[in-house]
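Quick review question:
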């Protein structure tokens, strides 16, 4: 799927609006995700601030089919305290409610490609 910067910006606006409520957000607490908090000394507040700070230039790829659940995921990357962090995000419906989910937030296993960076 061809994605332009406006589609990425639109996803980020909705994602950020959902996490800003504090109740429409899920974080998948897998060991590799939790280790970033310990290894980088991130607090929950720092983590949310990093997500809210994502921009179009942090986009890597997507939307692509979620391999575990219905829907699509969007992939981003960000340098945090000198570490490249791989971020996988999703917006989904739960009944009549829209929710945001952070599926992955861990050190990148491979170099991250940023198609909208110059």
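Suggested answer, residue by residue:
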């Amino acid at each position: 799927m061809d994605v332009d910067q406006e589609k990425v910006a639109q996803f980020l606006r909705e994602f950020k609006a959902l996490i800003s409520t504090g109740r429409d957000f899920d974080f998948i607490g897998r060991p590799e995700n939790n280790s970033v908090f310990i290894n980088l000394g991130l607090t929950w507040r720092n983590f949310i601030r990093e997500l809210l700070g994502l921009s179009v230039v942090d986009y890597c790829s997507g939307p692509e089919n979620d391999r575990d659940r219905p829907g699509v995921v969007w992939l981003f990357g960000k340098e945090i305290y000198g570490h490249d962090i791989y971020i996988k995000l999703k917006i989904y419906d739960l009944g009549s409610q829209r929710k945001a989910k952070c599926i992955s937030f861990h050190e990148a296993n491979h170099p991250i490609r940023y198609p909208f960076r110059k």
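Why it works: The chain has one domain: 5-107. The mean pLDDT is 90.
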